[in-house]
């Protein structure tokens, strides 16, 4: 059985990827994830300046996932890139550098800056809760999403992944726009929402920011639908993210059209051993159902 996969000519030994924002803060944490079986690792999103993020509490554990409002906390870019270079040096698997910016033009600057570290991919996070030059979150505006992708494409020779938000009317239109403007890969989806949790004793919102993004098992049906729709309109690979915490979840996401799967909240639920567990379950499924190659699974639901 072949569980390796190529994404934009970059080989992953298996289709599991550490999603951005979970354990990709330091080189040592990314090394640990790689050693525990992830096919690739993604950094926490790197920004153009140090951000403290929101005050605690920033995470609420729900019965069906997580609600978070971290606030894009990040160190100075020089410090983040130093950790990125160290991770690339120590890890023999693809390292994906996720990043965000405050304006459309700044995305180009950040792409140039991070490209000096030579990661396997740049993940362009246009789905974080920023407000861009046109007064709307970057990933919710077709024109803005295309402009950012084009600027990044013209700023680097490294393959680029564009991360999309589900909080749009038609994700297909945005997916096609970023492909047309030079994206090599699409990752979908980021958190759903925003959502809210109120403490009924105090009568106040639990999160300091009041609102946060919803992740985990409860958003998987939305993620699967988004991947399915994107697969119908683009020719580039898709990384499916949202609620994957088992081999069955991963296979479902791949049958919708994903070539690989990002794992985030699943680590919170099941620990860092989740990567090996999911790969083992994928192999068991392939053996039991006579699949020889992941390519036979990818997009099967469209047949």
Structure write-up:
It is built from 9 helices and 16 strands. It has 303 residues and is an alpha/beta fold. It has a single domain (5-302), classed as Alpha-Beta Barrel (TIM Barrel), CATH 3.20.20. The strands form 4 sheets. An 8-stranded parallel beta barrel has the order 3-4-7-8-9-10-15-16, surrounded by 8 helices. Helix 4 (142-153) runs parallel beside helix 5 and helix 6 (220-233) runs parallel beside helix 7. The protein is globular, with a radius of gyration of 18 Å. The two termini are 22 Å apart. The model has no long low-confidence stretch (mean pLDDT 94).
Brief description of this entry?
The chain is an alpha/beta fold and 303 residues long. It has nine helices and 16 strands.
Features:
303 residues, alpha/beta, TIM Barrel, 4-stranded antiparallel beta sheet, 9 helices, 16 strands
| CATH architecture grouping | Alpha-Beta Barrel
Q: Strand-residue fraction?
A: 15-25%
Low-confidence stretches: none
Q: Helical segment tally?
A: 9
For this structure, the CATH topology is: TIM Barrel
Give the CATH level 1 class: Alpha Beta
SSE sequence, one letter per element: EEEHEEEHEHEHEHEEEEEHEHEHH
Distance between the termini: 22 Å
Q: Structural class, from helix and strand content? A: alpha/beta
Strand order of the largest sheet: 3-4-7-8-9-10-15-16
**Main beta sheet:** 8 strands, parallel, barrel
Give the rounded overall mean pLDDT: 94
CATH superfamily (homologous) name:
Aldolase class I
Helix content: 25-40%
Domain count, please report it. 1
Count the E strands: 16
Shape: globular
Radius of gyration: 18 Å
